[in-house]
Amino acid sequence: MPPIPGRRLIFQCDNSVLSDVTVLEPVTRVMAAPVLINNSFNKDLHKLAQRTMLEIQELYTSNSELSDVKIYLKVIELFMALSEFQLEQQKVVMDCDDIKIGEYNEKFGTVLKYIDNNYMYDITLDQLADVAGYSKYHFSRIFKQYNSMSYLQYINARRTKAAETLLLDPDIPITEVAMRSGFKSLTTFNRIFKDIKHCTPTDFKKLYSLH
């Protein structure tokens, strides 16, 4: 991106604190892909995101022992608002009512849990369609509408997320990281990881070894 004059506020948090909490799973799905929240995306969300960032900055510089807890609450509130917005968008894109989107939420929630528990194994379209209770064609089409990515893209993103954690361990070779994350070959792992993270697994490992 070309540099634009102005102030920058960058906030980084350990998202495992959120993703490890089962009850937050419907909310943390918004972390599956990057989202640019600006006025064009949604004015209300943009204002909320700006306000949240400034409130987090104030909390971060405070001396309260509860500041970290309050910061994560702010993050969750923002993710909840984003999730609610995306659900409304899904109803428009998929042209369905609250009852139908509720059905999709339940069925695809089960599918995503299945992927989370089995990403390290070979997962077929037949298996996922069976979990959802849809035909292969219907499942593939609806999944892409519901998640804004294909089921293969989602599986690869989940495997890449698992690989990131494993790559932080200096004692685990990259080949083993690939196998444990569900990739069939080192070549496939390198290609998909670079497509998603814009760097190779080796570069990623080196980057974090410097910290």
List keywords for this structure.
single chain, 211 residues, mainly alpha, Arc Repressor Mutant, subunit A, 11 helices, 66% helix, 0% strand
Care to describe what's here?
With 211 residues, the chain is mainly alpha-helical. It has 3 domains: 1-93, no CATH class; 94-148; 153-209, Orthogonal Bundle (Arc Repressor Mutant, subunit A), CATH 1.10.10. 66% of the residues lie in helices and 0% in strands. The protein has 11 helices and no strands. It has helices at 16-19, 25-28, 43-60, 67-93, 98-118, 125-132, 136-147, 151-167, 174-181, 186-197, 201-209. Helix 8 (151-167) runs antiparallel to helix 9 (174-181). The longest helix is centred in the middle third of the chain and has 27 residues, at 67-93. The chain is globular and about 50 Å long. The mean pLDDT is 88.
List the helices and strands and how they pair.
Blueprint: H1 16-19, H2 25-28, H3 43-60, H4 67-93, H5 98-118, H6 125-132, H7 136-147, H8 151-167, H9 174-181, H10 186-197, H11 201-209
Helix pairs in contact: 3-4, 6-7, 8-9
